[in-house]
Design a protein that fits this description.
homodimer; 188 residues; Tetracycline Repressor, domain 2; DNA-binding
Chain lengths: 188, 188
DNA sequence: GTCTATAGGGCGATAGAC
DNA sequence: GTCTATCGCCCTATAGAC
């Protein structure tokens, strides 16, 4: 046993989600979160740059997973195929955390600031995918177009994945949406 | 002459953009903005729900313009064609405000909170377009897919429109990107 | 760990326009 | 009288500085 209880970050994360569910994000102060985790507000801010981030830290790992998958696709595959592969990797990453993801989604849906933060995380992810595509020799604009479009599919797939009664895996839903998109696009 | 100088909102907007350019968003307090506009901080918050919003209020009009254009497309046009029409309306709406838009873009690019706010405005726009499409009888998921994809194109087109040396109109750029997207998508 | 500036909300007062 | 835009003062929580 060390001098402190272990896993301060994990305890803060758990405490935060619990409190946000119990009494909403706005009605929870950083001091409340820290107290439940047995820490002080000052300690909270040493682990998270701001109050919102306690729900979002960890997205770097998803990003890395998707970028890695994209970069490992064989040479010569199309931009959209590479993006589809990255989406498949996200599916494996998500696995069966639906119950947790649903609680988290509900908290985020109720608060504008949290929705903003979620969007910027996805925008970062999009930029990383575009970089990775460009790194593979794809034209810069085409790379951004494919990445942004891919993220549009990602957002919608994530939403559907968490919908009531949905039983398919994330990547199956994403693949289905990509197919529908292909049918949609030629009209322009 | 009334008791107060007219157009408090306009004065606050101008003062804010000036100060953000002069000394950055972070280094400008709401009191600074209000002072330059000849008002107090309390009055600022009566017109804008928060400090960020002073740069974004007005986006409702763009949204209305695009939704109206979308709804006025003839019956039977495809989802992507309707979205393309909305994009064309946005082009007319933007007209020749490039100089202003560039200053605004530079301020926003320098601050994470402002980027977040911009993203949520675009997400709202996307949701409105999806609603409008659904209202026209398009399947709900297809509507969201088309709207999200359209917004991906919108974001990129806006970016390119403000790039140095760009001389085309916004809608010309958007139309070009939609064409490129159509070529990209079938690969999936 | 303490100290502080700023965001942003609540409530009431005021001074015009009508 | 009402309605509306402004200001003043109080407050708390966030988040950064020291």
């Amino acid at each position: 046993m060390g001098r402190w209880e272990p896993d301060a970050v994990g305890r803060l994360r758990t405490a935060a989600l619990e409190l946000f569910v119990e009494r909403s994000y706005e009605q929870t102060t950083v001091a409340d979160i820290a107290e439940r985790a047995g820490l002080t507000a000052r300690t909270f801010f040493r682990h998270f740059p701001d109050k919102r981030e306690v729900l979002f830290q960890g997205s770097e790992r998803l990003e890395q997973t998707m970028v890695d998958a994209l970069l490992q696709t064989p040479d010569g595959v199309s931009a959209m195929t590479a993006v589809a592969t990255a989406m498949g990797a996200a599916g494996s990453y998500f696995g069966d955390i639906q119950a947790f993801a649903r609680r988290r989604r509900d908290v985020i849906a109720m608060n504008a600031e949290l929705r903003e933060r979620e969007l910027i995380k996805l925008a970062k992810l999009s930029a990383s995918l575009a970089d990775a595509l460009a790194q593979r020799g794809i034209d810069a604009i085409e790379a951004r177009l494919a990445a942004e479009t891919g993220m549009a599919v990602f957002r919608l797939a994530f939403d559907l994945w968490l919908a009531d009664g949905e039983h398919r895996r994330f990547d199956a839903i994403a693949a289905d949406l990509l197919r529908r998109l292909a049918r949609l696009a030629p009209g322009a």
